[in-house]
Write a structure and sequence with these properties.
By secondary structure, this protein is α/β, with parallel strands linked by helices. It is built from ten helices and eight strands. It has helices at residues 9-13, 50-60, 82-105, 141-151, 174-191, 209-221, 237-245, 262-270, 300-313, 319-333, and strands spanning 35-37, 62-69, 125-129, 156-165, 195-200, 228-230, 249-252, 276-278. An eight-stranded parallel beta sheet has the order 1-2-3-4-5-6-7-8. α2 (50-60) crosses α3 (82-105), α7 packs parallel to α8 (262-270) and α9 packs across α10. It is globular, with a radius of gyration of 19 Å.
């Protein structure tokens, strides 16, 4: 079992669970409701042990983690089968549970939330499965069969991340991406599951072409009855409004905390309370004050605090109300009970 030095009494008492690039301790904000990381790539962590990352997330108040898995990009390069991936999740959840038991022996418990009856994080690690636009050209019958196998798991709560990427790193043509996107949306409809959307415009595209096309496709195919969320939102108020009109949730991550992300924060301030959720997209885009570090699920605590602060300062909602909305919305999207008493 990994050593539990990151969870010892002095570390927690001194607020030293995380340090910035200069080695300074970064106290974790105290959550006012259970936290949800609705999109965290647990299997892509390189610098963090996945089990310890789960234990740290539980310690700071995360009570839901949704882990994406890609039937094209991750198979067979990383996982030989659906069973192997699911065993990876089960194994690290079990190790994390032992870590927390050891922490409890030293007098520590994950925070409790008055007025809530919520599951422990380690009972609430879920998955979504879908082919990222980078792999759209390889989303064939075999990839769909693997997706269906993953979605048959008791941990499965959605299809994703799927969509359109017109950014500089995707070499798949627009038509091929659209075909794969529509096919996976239809799968979400068939299985009555929500969809997590990855939509990225080309650099400098003021017209937001990828987002506009996604809106047209969602209008034509229909938003899945179970819902959808616009994962890793990094656009503007106008784009947010378009997806809000479709009934989509808007997921804010570490990018919202960056100093140059005022456009994202402007959209965040105006996002309806019923639509806003949080994520990390770990291991990418760690939030301020940990920018530049490898992101992990526990860091959603910093993003949630920023979301609550921005919305309170804008007069959109008090901080406590935003925290409640973040949790309730995540549970609603993924068909889970929110546990509020």
């Amino acid at each position: 079992m990994p050593e539990l030095k990151v969870l010892d009494s002095k570390t927690l008492a001194d607020g030293e669970l995380f340090h910035d690039s200069r080695g300074r301790a970064c106290p974790v904000p105290t959550p006012l409701a259970p936290l949800a990381d609705t999109h965290g790539h647990l299997g892509s962590l390189k610098l963090h042990d996945p089990a310890l990352a789960l234990a740290r997330a539980a310690v700071v108040g995360v009570r839901l983690l949704v882990v994406p898995v890609d039937p094209v990009d991750e198979f067979p390069r990383k996982w030989g089968s659906a069973a192997e991936f699911l065993d990876f999740v089960d194994t690290h959840v079990a190790i994390a549970r032992m870590c927390l038991e050891e922490a409890a022996a030293h007098g520590f418990r994950p925070p409790e939330f008055e007025g809530w009856d919520v599951p422990e994080l380690l009972d609430n690690v879920r998955i979504v499965a879908g082919a990222h636009p980078y792999g759209a050209g390889e989303y064939d019958d075999a990839a769909e069969a693997l997706t269906r196998e993953l979605l048959a798991s008791g941990r499965a709560v959605g299809v994703g991340e799927i969509g359109l990427d017109f950014g500089p790193y995707n070499e798949v043509d627009e038509r091929t991406q659209e075909v794969a996107f529509r096919r996976q949306l239809r799968l979400a409809h068939e299985l009555n599951l929500p969809a997590e959307l990855h939509i990225r415009d080309a650099a400098g595209d003021a017209g937001c072409t990828a987002h506009r096309l996604a809106v047209r496709i969602l209008t034509e195919e229909g938003v899945p009855e179970a819902g959808c969320d616009l994962h890793c939102f990094t656009s503007n108020v106008h784009v947010m409004e378009d997806f809000k009109q479709l009934g989509c949730h808007i997921a804010y991550g570490g990018a919202a905390t960056f100093s140059r992300s005022q456009e994202i924060r402007d959209a965040l301030a105006l996002t309806p309370s019923r639509c806003v959720i949080t994520e990390t997209d770990c291991p990418y885009m760690a939030p301020v004050p940990l920018r530049g570090e490898e992101c992990e699920p526990a860091m959603v605590a910093f993003t949630a605090a920023l979301v609550a602060k921005v919305r309170a300062e804008a007069g959109s909602a008090p901080a406590a109300a935003t925290y409640r909305d973040l949790w309730r919305n995540a549970c609603e999207l993924f068909g889970l009970p929110d546990g509020e008493r």
